[in-house]
Write a structure and sequence with these properties.
Helix content is 49%, strand content 14%. The chain contains 16 helices and 14 strands.
Length: 404
């Protein structure tokens, strides 16, 4: 979402943008993707939803970059495509520009739950230090993520640029939103007549979704028509649904699965509250989306949520305390005037995260990267010759082992 938003805004300003990314088996190939190239990928045992670009696709990545001849290369992945882009940048004399989106020290234990967490976290810190500490230009979405990187003794200058939101994406027509809700209630009749606490995102342990189910049990005692709607999917879905059933909340908790992005505006339009309990967000795009749509937020004030809300702006930022979280939800559900005031406040507060404002800042980063490239042109031939072995080594290795 972040990359697509920046791409759209940059193209509106006259830039030419090419996105290189993995192929996904279930992607609808009938939908055109101008300015996007996808490469053969494989799954992994750690996160079934994430894909790793095959090594044998690297030469095609290199050729795509050679053909496009970019002014700047911006990496938004820590995995296979990051390796390919780094090799190409080194061989071609480009500065390596990367955004650190994910705090892997906190996430890695969820992907490898059977291994002891202290050595896993130490390993994640080491990898992040090596990866981000060697970048020529380093960007993070929040000051909190920048502090995490500095705690790893990364001394690079860190530029903080939040992901931006296109406000027009979250303006919903009332009749269309009502028709969309009617269709959803046909699939999930338990939602009829309910008032929604909405969550949008991956249904995983690191998103702390189980906390929302437990909080709903408290909210429902005071507000009998309250329900929790989880828009998304993920490896934690079965656990959440079992937890809801054990708590007697099966008729109040619905996991919709992923929705087309164009439908998200309707989900927000039908929500009373955006409920968010994640403690590991580097920013929290969904929180900004909810505010942009005028949905008051109740969220745990840790990491990216603290950056976005900075207190009770657009809702209530609370501690990781079930009683406090539930009470904030009940206040908004029982007080229409308070909810209306927080809704207006959320829309106003979200304006600072508009994609136009953030693209202004990102453009300056790209101009700086291009200037480094231009200033290095006099030494380009020497650098390219010196490092060409990196570029060729991958192709030679692939040829020797006979990959297609």
């Amino acid at each position: 979402v972040s990359i697509q938003s920046f791409k759209d805004e940059l193209e509106r300003r006259g830039h030419e943008v090419l996105v290189l990314c993995p192929e996904y088996p279930k992607r609808d190939r009938s939908i055109p993707e101008p300015g996007v190239l996808r490469f053969d990928s494989m799954g992994n045992s750690f996160s079934v939803e994430d894909r790793l670009v095959h090594l044998h696709a690297f030469p095609r990545v290199f050729m795509a970059l050679d053909h496009f001849r970019p002014d700047a290369v911006h990496v938004n992945s820590e995995f296979a495509l990051q390796v390919a882009a780094r090799l190409w940048c080194k061989a071609r004399g480009y500065p390596f520009l990367i955004t650190a989106h994910t705090n892997w020290e906190h996430y890695i234990g969820n992907y490898l739950p059977r291994l002891p967490k202290p050595p896993l976290r130490s390993f994640a810190r080491t990898v992040m230090r090596l990866l981000f500490g060697t970048a020529d230009i380093l960007v993070t979405p929040t000051a909190e993520m920048a502090e995490v990187l500095r705690s790893y003794h990364i001394r690079r200058k860190i530029r903080i640029i939040p992901s931006g939101i296109d406000p027009s994406m979250f303006v919903a027509d009332r009749r269309e939103a009502a028709a969309w809700r009617a269709r959803l209630e046909e699939r999930h009749p338990v939602l009829a007549g309910k008032r929604w606490l909405l969550f949008v995102g991956r249904v995983t342990e690191e998103k702390n979704v189980a906390f929302l189910v437990t909080a709903l049990a408290r909210v429902a005692r005071a507000v009998p028509d309250a329900a929790l709607v989880l828009v998304g999917d993920g490896p934690g879905r079965d656990h959440v649904e079992r937890l809801a059933a054990r708590a007697g909340l099966a008729n109040r908790v619905v996991v919709t699965g992923y929705l087309p992005r164009a439908e998200l505006r309707h989900a927000y339009a039908n929500a009373e509250i955006f409920a968010f309990a994640s403690k590991t967000e580097t920013l929290g795009l969904a929180t900004i989306e909810a505010m942009t749509a005028g949905v008051p937020v109740v969220a745990i004030g840790i990491m990216g949520t603290r950056t976005v809300m900075r207190g009770d702006n657009g809702g209530f930022m609370v501690d990781e305390d079930l009683a406090e979280f539930s009470a904030a939800c009940v206040r908004l559900l029982k007080d229409p005037a308070l909810r209306a005031a927080k809704s207006a406040e959320a829309r106003e507060w979200s304006k600072q995260f508009s994609i136009a404002a953030q693209t202004d800042r990102m453009e300056r980063i790209y101009e700086f990267a291009a200037s480094i490239r231009r200033s290095a042109m006099s030494t380009r031939r020497r650098v390219t010759v010196k490092l060409r072995w990196v570029y060729r080594a991958v192709e030679g290795f692939i040829a020797r082992i006979g990959l297609p």
